[in-house]
Amino acid sequence: MKKIGITTDCVCDLPEEYFILNDVGVVYFYITTSTGRFRDGYEIDSANLIEYLENGGEKAETCAPEPIEYKSFFEEQLKKYDEIIHISITDKVSLSYRNALEAVKDMGDEGKRVHVADSEHLSTGMGHVVINAVDMRNGGSSVQEILEETERLKKRVSTSFIAKNADYLYRNGRVSKTVRDICDTFMIHPILHLKNGRMTLKGVQIGNYDNSVKRYIRQELRHSKKIDKRRLFITHVGCTVKKISEAKAEVNRLCAFEEVIVTKASATISSNCGEGTIGVLYINEN
Fold first, then answer.
1. Is 100 within a domain?
2. Least CB-packed of 125, 149, 168, 258 within 10 Å?
């Protein structure tokens, strides 16, 4: 039986302990600020980034690893494995997938042992895809079986977040100043959703943010009979223990998941949505 390695990008927002326990190789993104360039997860996290931005920092640009970094990473992983499946953040929001493919091309015959899959998701939506690949690998599935199931699964994953305001969307050029000001004035909280790999505005909630979060969760889980009950992630940016507890209680009230896992968003993800953002990410049934 061939030894298969599963690797991914750090923006899948799974806990570091998961990577260690399951021998998952991770490639790290970068955040460039006015004070320097930092590796996400090692030299900067979401708390550091939010503190910087909330205290007058203006520049915070995210960057995927270059092809040469992917090439070096894959070559190192191939010392341990016969073949590698690398699960990438959606191609529609990052150069990660294309840079990984370019690296594979530059590897010649060795590159035939590396398979790059576009998850069409980010954060723990992408994390669901990674966990499934690891479980299949551990269960003895082949590379082809894992890749085929990855293609099927990513169509069933639901990735969404509610943001406290539109400030970070404005900062990153996703909405105009007028839209940001309207959101602030009328307490409008945007709901962001991944559709066919693209980040889109799914809707809004209006009014008190705590109540808006609960309404967002109720909306997301309203078709609970069609949801895979094995696992749900609550992924957040700088939320208080109280807010997370309230979100978890609302999830448990609506749907009996076997696992409800709370994770912090990476600095890369946080830079695009801001403090107070919270999401429920799950898999729909077939």
1. yes
2. 258
**How many of the other CB atoms lie within 10 Å of CB of 109?**
6
Burial class of residue 193 (count of CB atoms within 10 Å of its CB; 0-12, 13-18, 19+): middle
**pLDDT, averaged across the chain:** 93
Burial of 157 (0-12, 13-18, 19+ CB in 10 A): buried
Residue ranges making up the domain that contains 80? 4-29+64-153
Do 132 and 14 lie in one domain? The reply is yes
33-45 burial, b at 16+ Cβ within 10 Å, e below that, comes to beeeebebbeebb
| Spatial separation of the C-alpha atoms in residues 28 and 267, rounded to whole Å | 11
Query: CA-to-CA distance for 88 and 93, rounded, in angstroms?
Result: 11
